[in-house]
């Protein structure tokens, strides 16, 4: 029988209407009656009643239930006092009907009662709305739902997360959904094969969230029993005397109620005191209870009579421990799952070790660059002139304060930094030249007097800084582009300021090499360094070279002060924190040599960071060990890593 074309067309049209209006039936059903069924839980919310109410609304299938809960969670619902009808409210005090959305007027604050769910109730609602928020048109709500999943992962989140993945248009949110799905599958996946695949994909993943999931899968709980429990996923069996002491083993038995506790001195005293009868306890006179053995004997008599709780003596402790086996069992019952998690954790541990090594290298390079900047000026001064300048640290302090003063007049931190660097060089260069002309030049060939004089100048400069700037630390603020950090992963990272200092150290290294190797001033400096008498006979003025060299070294210290002040406190004593490291860098590397200073700074920087890695809680001990190592090093190589021939080397 052939179908009627008109009837077929009618059926197709009806089907089209059904597809276009899938929620027509629901839209006609008001939400208010459903809310009134749970009026008490909505109007007076508590964490104990919120869960059942939220589950009832969501399970009803009403299309507006999720929106109501979202508004209720955000404290956007009020109750009309007259009849208990719920209304939507906004921040401006406006009220609208929940069904239909019509504006409600004529009500005052006395007519409505705002509903204020507490943080615990809002957390319950947020967790329940996660499946709905995963496909919300608003990307911020989807992101908030993913944050909620990350904070409180649950097996029930796998299905909605998987369903929302294909329709996710935002590439970043899609990647995060896939990531969370992998983590949830590894921890809660219903299919064993999917769990194993997810766990294997996390091998070598150093992210904190991935390590947390693997650690939870491989979590162990201590156990004790007469024999290993059948079917348990045993991680390892503990040997008494090797893995735990007899006392620790017995404490586990006591905690598991497998053995009575040991009597303590207080237990014995209290029990015996409570059972004194006729000047004796358990038939033993009081004057004989002067030893622990007699007190234990009296307690055993009372125990045998059932008058005190049973307690374990030394022999009973040994016997109880010997009669039990001690072990660690996985919380996860599937041994293949835990084996995969252990393998993944091993791969992650190896990768973390590599990253920690890389991070240690970055820290060493950073510290070496700081020491290089602080010491290069001193190395040039000491190498050419043979002057031990104890005021070198104060030139670093002067440079830092110069940067601070510049920022007082130039609020743009980038521009102020550009101005402060050359200005700090000019200020400290002038101060160095003045110090050389007024003091140092009169004390050549007299090292002890030079040391004492520069030490006195150091104290005077510190006091002058205190009088001008006070004793409080002054801020030297870095620009915004230096306020962050260069982060490679959860383990390897370095602050942007330290990267900038490292780059600045490289620039100065190249600049000094160019000056010393390619300019007339550098040629004259090297000539005076190697043989001042011969240099003078060739028309070079050693006195002028000494002045310029001292000024150059002081100017470089001023630039180092600006760089150091960006992350360290700018105080009058800040230079004293670097003078010792600067001298060690110069002596270890080799005086008067740029490459020697670089080698010394690298050696000291990496050595200090390496020692701190073994003892991170005590940096003072690390510095002490470093100084001892340097003293031993100098005994075997007194001229430093790169020895310089010339006056500074003692030739």
SSE order and pairing:
Elements lengths: L4 H16 L3 H4 L4 H6 L1 H5 L3 H13 L5 H9 L3 E4 L5 E4 L5 E3 L5 E2 L7 E3 L4 H15 L5 H13 L6 H8 L5 H18 L3 H10 L6 H10 L2 E6 L8 E5 L7 H10 L9 H9 L6 E2 L2 E2 L6 H13 L9 H9 L2 E6 L4 H51 L6 H18 L3 H26 L8 H23 L15 E3 L5 E3 H23 L1 H11 L1 H6 L4 H24 L10 H14 L4 H21 L4 H18 L15
Notes on the structure:
Helix 8 runs parallel beside helix 10 (171-188) and helix 17 packs antiparallel against helix 26 (594-614). The longest helix has 51 residues, at 335-385. The protein is 62% helix and 7% strand. The protein has helices at 5-20, 24-27, 32-37, 39-43, 47-59, 65-73, 119-133, 139-151, 158-165, 171-188, 192-201, 208-217, 246-255, 265-273, 292-304, 314-322, 335-385, 392-409, 413-438, 447-469, 496-518, 520-530, 532-537, 542-565, 576-589, 594-614, 619-636; strands spanning 77-80, 86-89, 95-97, 103-104, 112-114, 220-225, 234-238, 280-281, 284-285, 325-330, 485-487, 493-495. Strand 1 (77-80) and strand 2 (86-89) form a beta hairpin. The protein folds into four domains: 5-123, no CATH class; 134-217; 220-330, no CATH class; 356-636, ABC transporter involved in vitamin B12 uptake, BtuC (Orthogonal Bundle). The model is unreliable at 1-27 and 646-651 (pLDDT under 50). The chain has a five-stranded antiparallel sheet with strand order 4-3-2-1-5. With 651 residues, it is α+β, with helices and mostly antiparallel strands.
């Amino acid at each position: 029988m052939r179908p009627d074309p008109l009837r077929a067309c009618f059926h197709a049209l009806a089907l089209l209407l059904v597809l276009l209006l899938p929620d027509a039936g629901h839209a006609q059903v008001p939400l208010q009656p459903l809310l009134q069924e749970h009026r008490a839980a909505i109007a007076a919310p508590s964490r104990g009643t919120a869960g059942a109410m939220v589950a009832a609304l969501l399970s009803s299938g009403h299309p507006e239930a999720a929106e109501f809960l979202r508004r209720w969670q955000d404290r956007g619902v009020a109750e009309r006092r007259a009849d208990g009808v719920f209304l939507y409210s906004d921040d401006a005090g406006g009220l609208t009907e929940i069904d239909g959305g019509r504006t409600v007027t004529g009500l005052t604050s006395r007519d409505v009662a705002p509903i204020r769910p507490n943080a615990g109730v809002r957390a319950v609602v947020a967790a329940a709305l996660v499946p709905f928020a995963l496909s919300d048109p608003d990307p911020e709500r989807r992101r908030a739902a993913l944050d909620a999943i990350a904070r409180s992962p649950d097996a029930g989140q796998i299905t909605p997360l998987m369903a929302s993945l294909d329709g996710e248009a935002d590439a970043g949110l899609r990647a995060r959904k896939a990531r969370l799905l992998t983590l949830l599958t590894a921890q809660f996946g219903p299919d064993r094969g999917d769990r194993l695949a997810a766990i294997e994909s996390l091998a070598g993943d150093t992210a904190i969230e991935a390590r947390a999931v693997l650690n939870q899968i491989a979590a162990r709980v201590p156990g004790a029993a007469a024999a290993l429990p059948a079917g348990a996923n045993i991680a390892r069996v503990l040997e008494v005397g090797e893995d735990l002491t007899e006392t620790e083993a017995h404490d586990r038995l006591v905690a598991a109620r497998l053995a009575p506790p040991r009597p303590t001195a207080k237990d014995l005293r209290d029990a015996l005191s409570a059972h004194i009868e006729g000047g004796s306890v358990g038939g033993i006179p009081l004057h004989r209870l002067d030893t622990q053995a007699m007190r234990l004997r009296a307690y055993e008599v009372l125990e045998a009579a059932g008058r005190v709780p049973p307690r374990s003596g030394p022999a009973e402790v040994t016997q109880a421990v010997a009669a039990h086996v001690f072990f660690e069992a996985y919380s996860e019952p599937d041994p293949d799952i835990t084996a995969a998690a252990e393998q993944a954790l091993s791969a992650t541990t190896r990768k973390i070790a590599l990253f920690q090594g890389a991070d240690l290298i970055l820290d060493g390079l950073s510290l070496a660059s700081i020491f290089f900047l602080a010491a290069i000026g001193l190395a040039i001064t000491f190498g050419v002139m043979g002057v031990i300048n104890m005021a070198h640290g104060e030139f670093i302090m002067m440079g830092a304060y110069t940067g601070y003063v510049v920022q007082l007049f130039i609020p743009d931190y980038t521009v102020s930094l550009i101005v402060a660097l050359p200005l700090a060089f000019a200020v400290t260069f002038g101060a160095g030249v003045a110090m050389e002309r007024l003091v140092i030049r009169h004390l050549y060939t007299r090292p002890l007097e030079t040391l004492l004089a520069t030490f006195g100048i150091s104290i005077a400069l510190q006091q002058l800084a205190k009088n001008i700037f006070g004793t409080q630390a002054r801020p030297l603020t870095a620009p915004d582009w230096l306020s962050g950090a260069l982060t490679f992963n959860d383990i390897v990272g370095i602050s942007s300021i330290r990267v900038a200092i490292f780059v600045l150290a490289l620039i100065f290294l190249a600049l000094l090499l160019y000056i010393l190797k390619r300019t007339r001033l550098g040629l004259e400096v090297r000539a005076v360094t190697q043989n001042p008498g011969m240099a003078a006979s060739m028309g070079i003025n050693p006195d002028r070279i000494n002045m310029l060299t001292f000024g150059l070294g002081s100017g470089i210290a001023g630039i180092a002060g600006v760089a150091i002040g960006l992350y360290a406190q700018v105080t009058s004593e800040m230079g004293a924190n670097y003078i010792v490291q600067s001298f060690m860098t110069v002596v270890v590397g080799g005086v008067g040599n740029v490459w020697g200073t670089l080698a010394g700074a690298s050696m000291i920087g990496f050595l200090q960071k390496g020692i701190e890695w073994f003892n991170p809680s005590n940096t003072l001990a690390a510095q002490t060990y470093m100084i001892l190592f340097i003293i031993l090093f100098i005994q075997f190589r007194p001229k430093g890593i790169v020895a310089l021939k010339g006056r500074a080397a003692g030739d």
